[in-house]
Amino acid sequence: QVRLVESGGGLVQPGGSLRLSCAASGIIFRISTLGWYRQAPGKQRELVARITATGNTNYADSVKGRFTISRDNTKNTIYLQMNSLKAEDTAVYYCWLPDYWGQGTQVTVSS
CA-CA distance, 50 to 47, in Å (whole number)? Predict the structure, then answer.
């Protein structure tokens, strides 16, 4: 059974940082492409970042230079380091694997 479990969300002030984690199970992690999406209230879910099995990454234009996606194949975990956070980054962040989603973790950027 495939499971994606996110952690690390919370409340942070503008300009602050957070790191999200997503622990995956039930898959052959090292050969999988995974990623992060987000959904703000009243908006469609959108891609934030993805990372392939070989470590290639792609990012939404809105987060380039501020967010970094990484993976640790020894821990079956991907991460999203988010720096210089803005109010518009406020959303529920979802871990993604083709055909699967995590339960989401709330990120709120507010003073």
Answer: 8
Cβ neighbours of 49 (radius 10 Å):
23
Return d(Cα 103, Cα 24) in angstroms, integer: 12
102 within 8 A of 5, measured Cβ to Cβ: yes
Task: Give the number of other CB atoms < 10 A from CB of residue 98.
Answer: 9
68-87 residue pLDDT tens:
999 999 999 999 999 999 99
CA distance 75 to 63: 25
Q: Is 29 helix (H, G, I), strand (E, B) or coil?
A: helix
